[in-house]
């Protein structure tokens, strides 16, 4: 493609919901792109206004208009509507005889490259190059974790461009070497922030039930998680060693960890992550089989 740096690209987001807005927020905060280089297509007025007012980028209700000048198109809609969106765009490119198709970055959970390539095929047989990416919502703070898998025909320069895009809102950017692993990443880091928030909710409600005022419990639990997270990132210790360092022999932590083990925490986590991975595959299959 002609442009080799994200700051020079026209970025189009199809879908300005939670994840689309988080990515744009992260990119703007880091200065990786500018407001005039971003356009968001979003049918829901509430989200459109939110994106316009909080991020200051252009919006439209027309996917075709949003994609018109795009070098990079981020597909940020729910898996259930992806097929219709891709087919609508492909039909518009067929009609316009557009020479250069945008590089597509799809964050739609479970939607395979095979499906995307078919749906995006233009009537002369051309199809855009597509990269599947699984980001997560900490993108909003520039603290995302993202993993990617490139489809056929994506060049090394285009992979570099995608890495640059992801580095605008992610602290960790990985490339996986098999497409199925994107679903595993979905179960790990895509959905992961929600597991973490649930754990914090449970910690706060336990402490509250034992008499600590809720706001105090929330403040203590939040800082505990932030501090522990920073230790994971900033020390060279493994998670296991950091856990051991907290666990005094015959002390309080040991009592809690023993209780977790007896309740089958590892098995619970295994089953939960597998459920997310399986659900990604199901969503992809259902979208591929759908008529809409
Ligand atoms: N949320 C997350 O943490 C993550 C999400 N993802 C993936 O990102 C994608 C988006 O998720 P998320 O942002 O949470 O979902 P949201 O529902 O918050 O955002 C999707 C947006 O797309 C809009 N939309 C619906 N139909 C169309 C259409 N035809 N054209 C353009 N926009 C449309 C929706 O509007 P309306 O509400 O009116 O339907 C909505 O505002 C999903 O595929 C998900 O798997 C990936 C990683 C993490
Ligand atoms: O829940 C979902 O399906 C999306 C994918 C990863 C996070 N949210």
UniProtKB/TrEMBL annotation:
One of its GO terms (cellular component) is cytoplasm. Residues 179-283 form the Pyrroline-5-carboxylate reductase dimerisation domain. NADPH binds at residue 63. GO terms for biological process: L-proline biosynthetic process. It is found in: Cytoplasm. Pathway: Amino-acid biosynthesis. InterPro entries: 6-PGluconate_DH-like_C_sf, NAD(P)-bd_dom_sf, P5C_Rdtase_cat_N, P5CR_dimer, Pyrroline-COOH_reductase. It comes from the Eukaryota. The keyword Iron-sulfur does not apply. Residues 11-96 form the Pyrroline-5-carboxylate reductase catalytic N-terminal domain. One of its GO terms (molecular function) is pyrroline-5-carboxylate reductase activity. Keywords: Amino-acid biosynthesis, Cytoplasm, NADP, Oxidoreductase, Proline biosynthesis. It catalyses: L-proline + NADP(+) = (S)-1-pyrroline-5-carboxylate + NADPH + 2 H(+); L-proline + NAD(+) = (S)-1-pyrroline-5-carboxylate + NADH + 2 H(+). NADP(+) binds at residues 14-19, 76-79. Belongs to the pyrroline-5-carboxylate reductase family. PANTHER family: PYRROLINE-5-CARBOXYLATE REDUCTASE, PYRROLINE-5-CARBOXYLATE REDUCTASE 3. This is Pyrroline-5-carboxylate reductase. The lineage of its organism: Eukaryota, Fungi, Dikarya, Ascomycota, Pezizomycotina.
